[in-house]
Amino acid sequence: MIELNLTNLEDLARGTAFLATGGGGDPYIGKLMLKHQLEQGKKVKIISPDEIDDDTFACNVLTMGAPTVFGEKAPNGLTSYEAMKKVEEIIGKKFNAIMPIEAGGVNATLPLVVGALSGLPVIDADGMGRAFPELQMVTYNVGDVSINPLVVINDFYETGIFNSRNSSSGEWLSRAVCVRMGGICQVACYPMNAKQIRETSVHNTIKLSFEIGSLIQKARDDKNDPVEEIIKYMGKSNPPRVGKLLFTGKIDDLLRETVNGWTRGKMYLKSLNDKDTLLVEFQNEFSYAKLNDNKVLAMVPDLICALDSETGEPITTDSLRYGQRIKIVAVSVPPIMRSEKALKLFGPRAFGLPFDYTPLEDIN
């Protein structure tokens, strides 16, 4: 069991920012929300999916919207908790645990806030192992877990309830309501039993966030390169995961806009040493990186992360600025995210990209 406290909260926020692959909302907001709960004496119990009882029944809670909106209109733990209670009311059964739907950014920390408010344990697993922009892009769907009932709610407790024909339809319907709610809303969905949690989720991603965040800080303190330390660490993980430094340069141009409830855009990097350029496109999260406009170096679902060149601090898409000097790092995903069914949900074609998935380790 992991103990969350005021001492390791910074490591958690930094690690979730890395796993967010540019999206997921500003981790600083999630850190402040959690800090408030901890300072009030609230506790958060985090348990491994390997430790859960057979009667475990968990709800996924999250914030939907464009990360650029979150800085002006922050996520709300109380309404997230209310959305979860509404799901309980609909199905006539109480939850005894909470799940994060993704491992990155605000949506990695918000379930911990709801855990503090409700007293329920938070399971150390999620449906993405990173952050993705759409509700159907989860490993739960590889195991045919139902998204229903799907509840969306805003700060005025105005509530939308959907019983969608599938998770893609649930995303489409709730996204439209999210836009009407000002580009942000709180969501509860994907009620899951113990068997579904064990078999369809990405395990131990909260633990991974703590360890990556701590690793980056230690590398800075020891005057080592955080990127090199992350790559070595991922290679020793279980199962081993490939890490690569794709590019080092400065932002030469940046196109970013909020469209239909997402932050969409393109970042152009220029090398500091030669004429090479890198294009990184994003829909909330970075989706692919292309060298010199002709060679794709990494693509979804593998993680593409932007780190400050000097400090190794992860940078979100809403924090990108012209002239920033950054390193682009890629990390391979666990096997559960590379099956044929999984790639139909969140591979390149699912993002409308005109190419099929090539694993990071197979790209020269």
Q: Per CATH, what is the topology of the largest domain?
A: CV3147-like fold
Please tell me what the overall shape is.
globular
In the predicted model, the low-confidence regions spanning at least 5 consecutive residues are none
Termini gap: 39 Å
Q: CATH homologous superfamily of the largest domain - what is it? A: CV3147-like domain
Biggest sheet strand order reads 15-14-13-12-11-17-16
Largest sheet: 7 strands, antiparallel
Structural class: alpha+beta
The total number of structural domains is: 2
Estimate the mean pLDDT confidence: 95
If classified by CATH, what would the architecture of the largest domain be? 3-Layer(aba) Sandwich
Number of strands: 17
Number of helical runs?
10
- What does the radius of gyration come to? 19 Å
Would you mind describing this structure in some detail?
- This protein has helices at residues 9-19, 27-39, 67-70, 77-91, 106-118, 167-180, 194-200, 205-221, 226-235, 340-346; strands spanning 2-3, 45-47, 57-65, 97-100, 122-123, 125-126, 150-153, 159-162, 184-193, 202-203, 243-259, 262-271, 277-283, 285-291, 295-299, 303-308, 325-331.
- By secondary structure, the chain is of the alpha+beta class.
- It folds into two domains: 2-203, CV3147-like fold, CATH 3.40.1610; 224-362, CV3147-like.
- Strands 15-14-13-12-11-17-16 form a seven-stranded antiparallel sheet. Strands 4-3-9-7-8 form a five-stranded mixed sheet, with helices on both faces. A three-stranded mixed sheet has the order 1-2-5.
- The chain is globular, with a radius of gyration of 19 Å.
- The mean pLDDT is 95.
